[in-house]
Structures are given as C-alpha cells and as structure tokens.
UniProtKB/TrEMBL annotation:
<comment type="function">
    <text>Removal of H(2)O(2), oxidation of toxic reductants, biosynthesis and degradation of lignin, suberization, auxin catabolism, response to environmental stresses such as wounding, pathogen attack and oxidative stress. These functions might be dependent on each isozyme/isoform in each plant tissue.</text>
</comment>
<feature type="binding site">
    <location>
        <position position="279"/>
    </location>
    <ligand>
        <name>Ca(2+) 2</name>
    </ligand>
</feature>
<feature type="disulfide bond">
    <location>
        <begin position="58"/>
        <end position="141"/>
    </location>
</feature>
<feature type="binding site">
    <location>
        <position position="271"/>
    </location>
    <ligand>
        <name>Ca(2+) 2</name>
    </ligand>
</feature>
<dbReference type="GO" id="GO:0140825">
    <property type="term" value="F:lactoperoxidase activity"/>
</dbReference>
<keyword id="KW-0408">Iron</keyword>
<feature type="domain" description="Plant heme peroxidase family profile">
    <location>
        <begin position="48"/>
        <end position="353"/>
    </location>
</feature>
<feature type="binding site">
    <location>
        <position position="220"/>
    </location>
    <ligand>
        <name>Ca(2+) 2</name>
    </ligand>
</feature>
<protein>
    <recommendedName>
        <fullName>Peroxidase</fullName>
        <ecNumber>1.11.1.7</ecNumber>
    </recommendedName>
</protein>
<feature type="binding site">
    <location>
        <position position="90"/>
    </location>
    <ligand>
        <name>Ca(2+) 1</name>
    </ligand>
</feature>
<feature type="binding site" description="axial binding residue">
    <location>
        <position position="219"/>
    </location>
    <ligand>
        <name>heme b</name>
    </ligand>
</feature>
<feature type="active site" description="Proton acceptor">
    <location>
        <position position="89"/>
    </location>
</feature>
<keyword id="KW-0964">Secreted</keyword>
<dbReference type="InterPro" id="IPR000823">
    <property type="entry name" value="Peroxidase_pln"/>
</dbReference>
<keyword id="KW-0106">Calcium</keyword>
<keyword id="KW-0812">Transmembrane</keyword>
<comment type="similarity">
    <text>Belongs to the peroxidase family. Classical plant (class III) peroxidase subfamily.</text>
</comment>
Length: 375
C-alpha cells in the first residue's frame, strides 16, 4: 500500500483534482473520490464471452494459470488476495482490458501507467506473477491468450486456492492499447469512502448494491498497510479520537500492529480470525464492529442502510455469499471488454505489441548486436 502519510495524500489528491478539473472546494475529505459520469465504454454482454473460448486453441490455459498461482501462493499466501484486487483494479478503469498492467512508455505511443495512480502507487502486487503466467501460457499457446483473460482466470483460481468458490470464467477478452491514470484516480474506491461514495463508484461501473457487498467480501483474505487505517485508530475525521464504529478490543489490537506514526510498511489482516481462508467471516466481523477499513465497516454501521440486511444474510449463509460473489465477479469481469478485432493479444503484458518487439530483440541477442542492427 502507499507508504506516504495518508493525510498528506488526501490533501495532495484534492489539490490535484481541483487544479485539473476546476472543482469547487469540497467539504468531504476523500482520496480518489470524484463523482464520475460513466463514460468511454459500454458494458459488454455475457454473450460476447465464452468459458470454452480456448477449448481448441489453448485447452490447458486454466491449469497453467492454476499451477503458477498455486506455486507462488505456497510461499506468499497473501498473493491470492492481491491477484483478485489486481483484477478489480483493472476492470474499474477502461473495463477489463489489462490496462492496469501497462508500464509507462513514450513510443510507439505515450502511455501513463495506471500503476502510479493514487489507488495503485506502491500498493499493487502480483504484476510479476501475471508475467510468470503469461510466459508459461505463451510457451504452450503463443499469441492466443490475452493478458485480460489471464487476470480474470488468476482471480478465479485465487478464490479457489483460498478455499472459496469456483466458477466458469467467461473468456475471449482482448487487451487494450492504452492506460488511463486519470480514470484510475477517479474510478477506484478509497479505503475511507462513505457508503454513499462506495455506491456511486460501483453504480458508475454498472454494479448494484448487492455487487458492492458481495465483492467487498474479497476482504475476507489478505492484508492492508497501516497507512490505510491509521486515522481510524487515532484521529478519525480530525476528532483526535478513534472511529466510534470500531470495537474497542479490536482497536487496541490494531494499535499494537499499527502504532501512531509507526512504520508505514506494517500490515494488518483484513480478517483477524481466518486471514488466509476465503469464508463468510468478513461479514461476521462487520457485525462485531471489526471491519478493518472504514469502507468495510460502512456496509454495516451506516444507519438504516440497505446493505445491512445483505451483510446479515451473508454472515449467516456462506453459500448465499458464494453464489453472489460468483455472479458479481462474472458481472464485473464483463465490464467494457474488448472482443473480436478490437484491441490485441499482447506478447508481453506490460507493453503493447509494437513496444514488445523492441524488448524481445533486446533480450534475445547481445546488446552490441542489437544496437548494431537497430541503427
């Protein structure tokens, strides 16, 4: 997660938005929050994608993805949550087109990577794992499987490996040709959003309240850096006091992990009971005022919210949570997909293909030879 002080980040972001968009002063302090009109791409229908898309061209793609993710997660269980988050952060910006994977480039076209957007900077994990998967897939089926589909498959595999639900992933996405850092700053919800802000961010992507609560359940696994919760623990809403929605015993536990002005690299479990198991405990935690992020606890502690009944249902019925999570993941995975002749199948996930050619040449032959032939 971001390593700089979160209060400074909020201020910097608001100033950035006012300068860029001419916004009037705002009274609600929010990182990455802009009321966004849904623009730029249509929602794709499920009919455009097919779980058997690679049946004849790359039949083993799912098992290849699973093998790489399984091997990585044995050493780093947190990676399962990180890969689900990476898919989420891709789909909320330009749709599920692997734009989040693109690095900064100047040629053949200038790309400002989404990886340096406020919600992603110093916090995205799993980019190297996606590259490992891509290499393995290219060895088996060169030029066939998109990075966007790899992200989607990796998210599903991560759910299963953590003990969560599985589903048939609709496939056939193609990779985008650009990224959009501005949209990343606008579209991705922040860890201290209010419920109204969360709903706005999800509605902008064509996702409803049930989708919001179900997809938030991915926080049943993984960890967050203390910088995302520090103000909740010590100075909520500039009150000099902790967030009143936090259980007092849980508060003291979190303060030991995340002391005031402590190391920014400290991390806390989203689920204090089963941090690496994909289960319904996330919702039970919300009922007990033990949601790690403000945006988590908002789902249950916002007065008279329609999300409360959904939380209660998922807390009492894990099957109901799993079914909703599966449906919402498929729905999210259909946002703004490129199919047919749109986009491309990237050779390397971090660069569009014309840029990839340069890197292939540079890595395949000695530098002196490459330079001689490139003059």
């Amino acid at each position: 997660m971001v390593s700089h002080n979160i209060n400074n980040t909020k201020t910097q972001f608001l100033e950035h938005q006012k300068q860029k968009m001419g916004l009037i002063p705002v009274t609600v302090v929010a990182l990455w929050y802009v009321i966004v009109v849904f623009v730029g791409f249509p929602l794709a229908s499920n009919a455009e994608l097919d779980s058997s898309f690679y049946k004849n061209t790359c039949p083993n793609v799912s098992s290849i993805v699973r093998e790489v993710v399984r091997n990585v997660s044995k050493k780093d269980p947190r990676m399962l949550a990180s890969l689900i988050r990476l898919h989420f952060h891709d789909c909320f910006v330009l749709g599920c087109d692997a734009s989040v994977l693109l690095n900064n480039t100047d040629t053949p076209t200038k790309i400002e990577s989404e990886q340096q957007a406020f919600p992603n900077n110093n916090s995205l994990r799993g980019l190297d794992v996606v590259n490992q998967i891509k290499t393995a897939v290219e060895n088996a089926c060169p030029g066939i499987v998109s990075c966007a589909d790899i992200l989607t498959l990796a998210a599903e595999v991560s759910s299963v490996l953590a003990g969560g639900p599985d589903w048939k992933v609709p496939l056939g996405r193609r990779d985008g040709l650009t990224a959009n850092r501005t949209l990343a700053n606008q579209n991705l919800p922040a860890p201290f959003f209010t419920l109204a802000q969360l709903k706005s961010a999800f509605t902008a992507q064509g996702l409803n309240t049930t989708d919001l609560v179900a997809l938030s359940g991915a926080h049943t696994i993984g960890r967050a850096h203390c910088s995302f919760i520090n103000t909740r623990l010590f100075n909520f809403s500039n009150s000099g006091k902790p967030d009143p929605t936090l259980d007092t015993t849980y508060l003291q536990t979190l303060r030991k992990t995340c002391p005031n002005n402590g190391p920014a690299t400290n991390i806390a479990n989203f689920d204090p009971t089963t941090p690496d198991t994909f289960d319904k405990n996330y919702y039970s935690n919300l009922q007990g005022k033990k949601g790690l992020l403000q945006s988590d606890q908002e789902l249950f502690s916002t007065s008279d919210a329609d999300t409360i009944s959904i939380v209660n249902t998922f807390a009492s019925n894990q099957d109901a949570f799993y079914e909703s999570f599966k449906a919402s993941m498929i729905k999210m995975g259909n946002i703004g997909v490129l199919t047919g002749k749109n986009g491309e199948i990237r050779k390397q996930c971090n660069f569009i293909n014309k840029k990839s050619v340069e890197f292939d040449l540079a890595s395949a032959v000695p530098k002196e030879v490459w330079l001689a032939h490139s003059k």
